[in-house]
Model the fold of this input.
Amino acid sequence: MKNEIIKIDKLSRVFRVGSEDVHALKHVSFSIYEGEFVSIMGTSGSGKSTLLNILGCLDTPTSGEYSIDGVKISTRSKSELSKIRNTKIGFVFQNYNLLARTTAIDNVMLPLLYNNKIPAKEKRDRAIEALKAVGLESRMNHMPNQLSGGQQQRVAIARALVNDPVILLADEATGNLDTRTSYEIMTLFQDLHSQGKTIAFVTHEPDISAFTDRIILLRDGHIIKDTEVTPISAKEALEKLPPPEVD
Done:
């Protein structure tokens, strides 16, 4: 049986807004197992962002339990949660979140800076391997402003991979990209999934969720659908797009 990477059990999150309680999540339960590629979907107000913050150990639930890789987060201190974020989760953001005046390889090495157990050479070697995994070894000394949006997102994915996390957590990772580049990035995610990576991909775009093998749909703080699906090949979808226009 595959390892249970994420376990959410009767999880609720309540925010106090003025004199009212806002129930962003209401008794949500699900698990994500090793090797799954799951999309978490929902419109604005569905609870998707709240769930993302809890999955990323940036927030804690009001009630219920969240465990990642067998570790319950509700009993952890802020410093312990920070360590969990850095070692067990690889984050990929919509806006890339790269340091502007830092080369691609140094951006990828950032999660390793606080790990004194890893020698400097090994940190660099890991970063090079991560950049190779996303096809950017020839751009490792480029600054972000010398890279396209798709290339910057590849650097961000390499940074997420460098610590060999138990799960990649992508937040609208194609949201700032055109359709062709989005499909290229999803081809990369599908390649990583085929290599055994566990991925949770938060999106509001149905065509992006079609590239995953399970869809969790949120509405008004509830899960209204949790379905395994046969994913579309992002590579094949990319090949069917009209050729890019040449200026």
